[in-house]
Amino acid sequence: xxxxxxxxxxxxxxxxxxxxxxxxxxxxxxxxxxxxxxxxxxxxxxxxxxxxxxxxxxxxxxxxxxxxxxxxxxxxxxxxxxxxxxxxxxxxxxxxxxxxxxxxxxxxxxxxxxxxxxxxxxxxxxxxxxxxxxxxxxxxxxxxxxxxxxxxxxxxxxxxxxxxxxxxxxxxxxxxxxxxxxxxxxxxxxxxxxxxxxxxxxxxxxxxxxxxxxxxxxxxxxxxxxxxxxxxxxxxxxxxxxxxxxxxxxxxxxxxxxxxxxxxxxxxxxxxxxxxxxxxxx
Length: 282
Prior knowledge:
This protein has eleven helices and ten strands. The protein is of the alpha/beta class. It has an eight-stranded parallel β-sheet, with helices on one face. The protein has a two-stranded antiparallel ribbon with strand order 1-2.
């Protein structure tokens, strides 16, 4: 599996599997087990998803060596701050049945995320986390975090897909060597992405689906993707993107799909701030 090197030298798979919105514990456990059997080695979860324990059970059942895995989780808004993050991290390790994380992220740029980052820096320097980063941090919040702390984030996980390509943010990420990680690589089905004419036409050239074209495009852009599916056949399809390459003309067509705006999460919108603060981690 192709990997990318983070700004601290840690290697991270470019193809991952995400478990957002898989709330049924048995279903989540089986889905992660299927993903691992498919070949995925990067598994992304979060405290607020309420399924860390199911992920941990699947990893234990899989028989895959911990050293071959790249496990990522996130600290939620209600646990922002130094002490709260320390406690949340300890619970995450217990849930996942591991003694370290490969990647730990601040989930939202709200609350005392500076305090969270100080805790994460300490955990990173103590070897409990191999890399630390953020999620949903736009360029200004990201730069503020960089300029007021010791450790530069290794990853920024953002809504990224053909309709929201994060071009302006990526210029800042490139400046600091921060890797972009795409949540919702299929735009949660927005804009008819699975039947989008341009993506379908590109895929038809290679005998691939629009979804596979999207994942191949992300991989060739050096963006880590974490598609979610609870169906083993779909996981296998999402994983099978290493037997074709997009042409320069293909990439120009995909680039033209960018709207320049998020479709799913308007992180600066006041109603979203209220909504996200009202959500509690399980």
